[in-house]
């Protein structure tokens, strides 16, 4: 704290620096010969993997199961846990210890995003996050082991179960199925235990600890939930159900994806398609086999992501809700945007618009740069945009010609993806923290003038 005070670093900078520091340490550890099966040091692969794990993305330039040793896989697991859990807890602990010096608006921001209304809530929040994380991952690992142990044996089966449970809860997407030449969870497309367990962990991790605290406290009484929880749960449910229905419509008769499976498998597979693209890079059907419409829907879901205060990335469900409700209100000539008999505060729309603009601008610019770099590689625009959105949305899905595209990209393109993963993990929340700084009183009000929009 003394160093931070001397340097006068704002909280936003502290968050970015902490994530960067974890990436540096993770890269150094993965560069140890013992971390890879062949003992060779590949700096770019180590940097890419460390960034992907810390930023809970799941993209990988090498196969996680066959390239990395058990030691390397353990490092990746720890990085995933720190990336998914640590950013939130570190932020909470930071404000807990400096609350006497932190500005009121900064403390208010943390409490609002966490769904608590008093400072004591920060202590409860940290404890609650740890309890929920350990409980969910433990139960998830046990359920997954019933399927994995049967196929892989006790040693690999248990390790795969723990690794996948942590990866799913942290909305990451790393798997170890490469041991058997499989892509992600494709071999378990008709296994309800694996599919539903992974999806449940993804949803719980992506909704946020604070919302689940509200649900546990108030049970099924939706009216008792706070405003944040209502918006998150409603938006999440709509995205899952609408996405599920659309994927069934787009892919039901697609022979390249699920057209050859029975009805039950199709329903289960499309449910996974709807849940996992929102920042968890698991799939039971290779993304490259989806129809054009299915691929575009996946990109949209990856861009939206999960909810604030969770392990997920993307622009967040609340950003989408603010933009959509504000657009509807404007079209109806309403002066205020409101839902559930509450209106959004004055900062909500500017913050949401800024986050959306930054993300969409980054996607466009980086997609163009990668397209220029890979001009002779034969990759389509759809594949490149898919990869870029997957990186900035911290998803981990890839749309390659066979399985994944990431490992086929040149070093320059992979560096851009590293930047996007970092931006996707710290960018949105950092922007909100920047907005939380106290505003200086404005003594002069400029004259308004007309501007034609649209």
TrEMBL record:
Pfam families: TrkH. The keyword Oxidoreductase does not apply. It comes from Candidatus Coproplasma avicola. GO terms for molecular function: monoatomic cation transmembrane transporter activity. This is Trk family potassium uptake protein. GO terms for biological process: metal ion transport. Keywords: Cell membrane, Ion transport, Membrane, Transmembrane, Transmembrane helix, Transport. The keyword Ribosomal protein does not apply. GO terms for cellular component: plasma membrane. It is a multi-pass membrane protein. It is found in: Cell membrane. Its main location: membrane. The chain crosses the membrane at residues 12-31, 43-62, 74-98, 128-152, 158-181, 193-212, 232-250, 288-306, 312-331, 352-373, 415-436. It comes from the Bacteria.
């Amino acid at each position: 704290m003394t160093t931070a005070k001397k340097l006068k670093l704002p909280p936003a900078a502290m968050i970015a620096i902490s994530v960067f520091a974890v990436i540096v340490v993770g890269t150094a550890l993965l560069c140890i010969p013992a971390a890879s099966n062949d003992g060779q040091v590949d700096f770019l692969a180590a940097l890419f993997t460390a960034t992907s794990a810390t930023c809970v993305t799941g993209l990988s330039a090498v196969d996680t199961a066959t390239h990395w040793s058990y030691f390397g896989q353990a490092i990746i697991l720890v990085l995933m846990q720190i990336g998914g859990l640590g950013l939130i807890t570190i932020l909470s602990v930071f404000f807990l210890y400096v609350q006497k010096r932190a500005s009121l608006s900064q403390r208010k921001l943390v409490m609002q995003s966490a769904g608590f209304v008093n400072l004591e809530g920060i202590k409860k929040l940290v404890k609650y996050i740890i309890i929920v994380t350990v409980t969910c991952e433990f139960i998830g690992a046990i359920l997954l082991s019933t399927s994995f142990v049967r196929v892989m044996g006790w040693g690999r089966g248990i390790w795969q179960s723990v690794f996948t449970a942590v990866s799913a809860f942290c909305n990451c997407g790393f798997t170890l199925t490469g041991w058997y030449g499989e892509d992600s969870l494709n071999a378990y497309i008709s296994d309800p235990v694996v599919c539903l367990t992974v999806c449940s962990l993804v949803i719980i991790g992506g909704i946020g600890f604070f919302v689940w605290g509200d649900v546990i406290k108030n049970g099924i009484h939706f009216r008792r939930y706070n405003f944040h929880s209502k918006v998150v749960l409603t938006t999440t449910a709509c995205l899952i159900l609408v996405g599920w229905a659309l994927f069934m419509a787009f892919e039901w008769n697609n022979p390249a994806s699920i057209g050859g499976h029975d009805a039950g498998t199709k329903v289960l597979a499309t449910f996974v398609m709807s849940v996992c693209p929102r920042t968890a890079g698991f799939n039971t059907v290779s993304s490259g086999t989806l129809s054009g419409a299915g691929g575009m829907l996946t990109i949209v879901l990856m861009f939206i992501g999960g909810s604030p205060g969770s392990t997920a990335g993307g622009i967040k469900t609340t950003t989408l809700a603010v933009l959509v409700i504000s657009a509807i209100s404007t079209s109806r000539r309403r002066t205020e945007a409101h839902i559930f008999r509450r209106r959004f505060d004055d900062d909500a729309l500017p913050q949401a618009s800024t986050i959306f603009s930054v993300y969409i601008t980054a996607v466009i610019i980086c997609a163009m740069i990668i397209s220029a770099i890979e001009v002779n590689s034969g990759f389509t625009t759809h594949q490149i945009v898919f990869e870029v959105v997957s990186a900035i949305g911290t998803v981990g899905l890839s749309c390659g010609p066979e399985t994944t595209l990431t490992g086929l990209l040149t070093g320059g393109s992979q560096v851009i993806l590293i930047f996007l993963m970092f931006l996707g993990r710290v960018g949105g929340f950092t922007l909100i923290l920047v907005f939380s700084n106290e505003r200086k009183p404005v003594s002069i009000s400029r004259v308004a003038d007309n501007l034609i929009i649209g």
